[in-house]
Every structure is written in C-alpha cells, then in structure tokens.
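Re: export button greyed out
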Amino acid sequence: MKRLLLALLVLVGAATPVAAESLERIFSAGNEAYYQDELRQALAKYDALVEAGVEDPDLYFNLATAHARLGELGHAILYYERALWLRPGDEGTEQALATARRLLGKRRAEREGEATVRTRPPLTEALAGPFSADGLAWTLMVLNVLLFGLLLARPHIHHESTRLAATVAVPILALSVAASGGLLASKLGAFEPGERAIVLSEGAPLREGPDERASVRKKARQGQRASILGSESGYLRVRLPGGSAGWMKEKDLGQIRPN
Amino acid sequence: MRRPGELVTRALPHLALLGLLLVPALARAEVRVDVQPDRKQLAIGERMTVRITVQTEGSGQPEVVLPDFDGFEILSQQVQRPMQFSFNFGQRAVFRSSSIYTYVLSPLRVGTLRIAPVRVQLGDDTYTTQPLDITVEPGAGGAPPAAQPGQQPDPQAPANVADGVEFDSTAFLRTVVDQAQPYVGQQVTATVYLYSRNRIRSIPTPEQEPTTDGFWTRDLLGGNTPQPRRDVVGGQSFMVYVLRRFAAFPLRDGELTIGPMSITIDNSSVFDVLTGTRRQPDIKRTGVPVTLQVRPLPEAGRPDGPIAVGAYAIGTKLDREQTATGDAVTLTAVVRGRGNIETVELPTPGVPGLDILQPQVKDLVETPRDQVSGTREYRWLLVPQKPGTFTIPPFALNTFDPTKGQYRRVVSPALSLKAVGAALPAQAKPVPLETPSAPEIDPDAVEWAPIRTQSALSRRATLLAEQPFFGWALALPPLAWLLLAGGGLLRRRLAARTVSAEEAAEREASTQLGVAEQAARAGDVGAYHAAAARAIGAQLQARLGESVASLTHDRLRAHLRARGLDDTTLSAVVEQLQGGDFARFASGGDDGAALPEQARRLAALLKRLHAFSPSEEES
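Workaround output, generated via the alternate export path:
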C-alpha cells in the first residue's frame, strides 16, 4: 500500500519539481541509511525508487553495493550488471563487479577447497558490452542516413576526386551499418535464447517442471549467468551455461536488463 | 537257304543298333529339381537368395510351377537357361533343358515362413520337391518390425516395447522405446527412426526435438549416424534411418511422455539446376508421442534412504596411510557400474579429528551397446587435526537392479589413516553447500567503492531501438533511395524514348528529301511533291514532337505561328505544300523543269526547320 501510494505520488507529479524533489529525498535518505550502516533500510529506499520507475545506473550501483556489504553477492552481481547495461564502460562499476565476483570465488573456495567463477561474458555480449543500446541505435540511424544519402548524391557529383571518395565511402558505410546493426541486435539479446539473468541464490534448484514437487536436475550457483526462456506459475524456464534447462523459482533469478 | 541261327546272328547287330536308337525315346523321362536357399534363418530387414535349378530330359517341354513365396517380398528375380536343346531321331524327339531361377527375397513377418514346393510336370509325370521352412527373427540391433498400415499392432512384437508410429506411404517417423513400464531411475532407450520410401539426399532438418520432460537423458549416437537399412512395411520397402537414440532415466513414477519429433526432408539438390530436374517439395513429418507407465521402486525390501538404480560397486583408497598433522591426504572413492552414474551420490564421511573438505567429483560415462555405465570418482582432501589413527568408515550404497528386481547394499571396506605430529589449533567447520545464507568471509572486510550520492535518477524509458518509429526511421533512407533511383531510371528511359522518336522523324525527313531530289532529277512532278510533303511533315513532327499531317493549311499556319515559326519560313512551308497540292490535282500545272530549283528550295527550307526551336504550346 505504501509503495502504491508512493508510486501514485510519483506518477501524478512526475513532471513537477516536487516529484523530482521527492525522488531526490528518497535517494538521499537511502544514502544516509547506508552511511549509518542501516543497509536493509537503505535497500528499502532504493527499492522504493525502482518501484517508482527510476531506472538509473547510479541507483543500481548503490543497490548493488548495499547487497554486497550484506554478503548477498548474487544480488550485488545482478545490480552491478544492470548498472553496466545502462551505462556501459563505467569503470567504478566494472571494478566493483570484479570485486563481487572475486569475493564469491573466495567464499566458494573456502567452502569447497577450490572454485571457478566465470567472469568473461559470451563473445557477442563482450563485443556489444562497451556500447549503450541507445548509442548504438543512434549510430545505426545516422550511418544509415549517411549511406543512402551518399548513394543518392553520388550520381550528381561531378568532381572526380569527390566522386572517388564517395565510391570508397559507400562500402565502408555499408559495413559500418551492418556492424552497428549486429552490435545493436547483440545488445538487445537477439542472438541469445532468452533474456540474460543472474542466479541469486547459492544452490538454487533447477527443477524438471514448474512445481515444488518436480525432481531437481541440477543446483545452480550464485552469480551464475542464465537465460530466461519462459515463465509459468511463479517459475521461470531457464537454460544454464552448460546447456542444462529446467525451471527455477522467480525469486532465485534476476533479469539483467531492467523490465 | 540260310539257317535260322545264321539269320539271327546276322540280324543281331542291326537289332542292337535299333535298340540303341530307341532307348532314349522309350526310356523314362529324367527330372532333377534343386531348391537351394543361401540361408535358412534371417532377420526382418535382411534378405536371402533362393536358387531353383530344374534340369529335365524327356520327350517334351517341362512345365515348371514355382512357389508364390507367401510371406516374402520378392526384391528381384532372374531366370537363366544355359542349356536347352533336343535330339531328333526319326519320329521321336528328346529334349534336354536346364533352367535356373534365382529369387532375392525379404521376409515380411517374424516366425517360420514356408516356401511351397516346386512342381515340375513332364509328360504324364509330376515331380514335387520338399517345402522349405525359413526362420525369421526380429531385426537384429535395429527397429522391431514396424506397425503395418492402420496401426495394427504386431502380435509378435515384444510386449514391453513402446512404439509410436503412424504409417504413411511416403515417409513416416517412428519412436521406439525398449521399456514401456520401467522403474523410476531405470534406463530406457528411445530411438527415433525415419522410414522413407526413397533414399533421402541429405540429413533431415529437425524442426522439433523429442521432448523429455520428466527424464534425465543422455545421447547415445554421439554424432554418429548408423547406416540406413531396408525394412518392409505393408508390403512396401522403406529405407530406415536412425535419427535419434538416447538413454532416458525417468525421474518420477506415473505417466511420462517422450514427445514427437518433427522434421523436414529437403528433396532438392544443387544438381537439380544443372540437370534441369524439377524441384521436389519438402516433406514435413511429425512423429507420435510415446507414453510410458513408470513404476515406483517396489516397497518390499526397500531400504531407507536414497536408492541408486542400477548395478554398482564401490572402491576406496587413500593416497598414503600415514601423514603428518596438517598435511592433506586424498581419499578417493570410485563408484563403478551400470546405470545413471551421474546421479549416484556418496556422502562426505565425518571423522572426528579429520578436517574433510568438499569433494571434487569426476564422471566418466560410457555407453557400450547403448547401455549407460561408467565411473564416478569422489576425491576428498583429509587434513588430520591431531595425531592418532583414524578409521574412515566404509561407504555404503543402497542399489536396486531393475533387471533382477532386487535391492542390494554395496559396501566398501573401511580405511585407516595414521597421523603423527602436534595437534593443530581448532578451525571452523566447513559449512555445507546448502546453507549459503551465512557468508564465511566478512564482506565489510572488502573495500567496496563508495556509493553514488549524485544521480540524475533517470526514469524508465523505452529504448530508441524499441520505439515504434525506429523501424520506419531505418527503412526510410533505403526506401527514398529506391524511389529516387528508380524514378531517375524511369525518367532516363522516357527521355531516351523521346529522343529516339525525334531522331526517327529527322531521319524520315532526310530520306524523303532524297526521294524528292531523285524525283526532281527524273522530272516526276507527282513523286516530287508527294516526297516533299512527307519530308516537311516529318521535319515538323521532329521539331514539334507531334504529327501535323491531319491539319489543314490554315490551321497548320496558325499552329506553327503559335509555336513561334517566323513568317518567312511559315510562308515557304505553306507554299511548298500548296504547290504540291496544285501540281497533284491540276493536270499540266507544272512541267517539271523547275523541279531541281524547287528541290534546292526544299532542302533550304528543311534546314531552316531543323534550326527551328518551337516555343511551349499554350494550353
């Protein structure tokens, strides 16, 4: 109810300075709680902002760091990844993500003798990683206009050297359009079987069906990547990197790209 | 007079010769029939050759009645007649013939099939061979006999085999599972076959893989494709391809279904273009789901705790039997056997005074004769915390062998480890994997980056690439390019067509001037004026872009004036045309002497018209 009222307040006065002030105030209150080591309270404030429709890399960074300090490394990795999705190449976030993964590996090694934590993303994702989706979309649009504009203008260019330059530029622009289109498609997950997600709980069961009684096929590792293929009655159909597919509870997974 | 004895003596040689000559004719006809199969036992899908040899010698042609090979499909037949000739002595003839009939047969059903006797009739005598019994077994290592059209179950098919098939005369998919009522955890082997009337050109494209919800599965083909074989269904011969074969271990009891596979068979070939063959349409086929009734493990004699389904043995060893306190010793336990080895779990032993870390687990799975088996190796690091002799208790595994229907407890021998040295200070016990909530490492001990105190707090916004206009924004430039480039091309083509019409009219004017000049030289007044009129008309059409042939002189004058033709040229045009009319309709009106001069004037006029640039026509 409290969240609903807050969301209503935010929606009604979304464009007004009052609303912006409210969001700022909640954000500041969250930060204040964080500095006072009231991490759960800080998380509640940050979550309220997310519920209200704020989708900001700095907010996700703070969420991730609060979770990390609570030892909830699955959530921390998820929110760092989400912050990077929104603001690729953010050095501070990349370092914090690496720290969270290192800590997860260390914790696992303490428990099991040795551990391997995969940090390298798939190739297509790694290529598109440094770019934002909107940046790639703008690049694609501009290059597209340039390419076809040049194609239209080329027959009317009479100056020999200019015409030669246009002839050379056309295939380069065509390749650039294809590359930016491919990167954009990769960024939006077009080459993957489903939505990218992170496993939040250690040993989260991967079941054969969307039911508590269904047999467990495998136990997923915290911080592990997964692809969400579908959903049914509180369960998500997922595929893990090794190819294992099954059903996991919604609470055990977090989607990297904000909903 | 000769004596009777002398007569007999003299007649004997002749009688003997006559007897010799009559013996073949009077002798009983001789028939030899031999039925020789290359084997008397075979499996469905295999083929056999039956060779029937008929040799006759007698006074007539033999009549051979061959069996109809009921229960077999005749794949090929051949008749050889290597020798066939006759001797003719006087009125009687003796025939000798030899025929070899060779049949290649394929059995259509399992059981004992009888090949009926061969009957040979020669003259009044009939010769019959013994019938031949052939034993036919189910296909060895391949699919059991396929259901016949109309899904009639084969009474001889093994009762415990689940078979999903729907007959189609061109191609169909068939799913065979070797166990229809397995126990939970028992391996069933599922095979998806493609039956095709024709040999397929390429590997079919799978549109949908068989679903196996409720099973733990393992592929048994491993990328290998078995050789296709031939089978007979409903009297039709099919090529049988193995598309999928996998081991499936039911994870729960009750009804479990292996879903149907869907494929597309591509009938085209790159050589179709070269050979001019018409492209055959693709064939799409979907199989039939197979439902298994999975039985729970029997309650009678069931031990408590987890049960490993299969037949297993456990071996254990320590890498050394004596060590110093604080040094790690490796304890290895290997579970070996037949069954879903990857699901077999061994508990971590607990020994006071020994710190035992979580194990490394290594699986080696094999599938000899499509039976999943292998080893699972557990390796624990044991660290003695104090000196003394430690006994590592035996590992025990409760198993259920589905082939025997019996429970069994497999136990490894106990091991002993001696540790020497001083006792180590106490350490925290390893936390089990299943309790992740308590972090072992204090996250606050890690130096996290400071949180962000300034933020734009951006609101949720639809990505540019997901805005409805984005697709249009991308499509617009290429569409504009296509439109403009296409329009330019069209314009150029129309312009080319206009220019060519103008050129044609110019050429016509020039041609007609030549005709007029020739007529002038010949003194042919009529021909000259006709050609002159055509030349002027063509030249005007070339300049104006339209024909003026239908206009009267007055209207032509008005029209040309409107298009900007100067009065001198206009008068000359009209004068030329009027002169022509006068010459053609008034006999003797022109004597032809002035024609060369008129021709020169005509040439000058056409030149002036050629230089004429008409103004735009007023609407």
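The CA atoms of residues 43 and 236 of chain A lie 25 Å apart. The button fix ships in the next patch.
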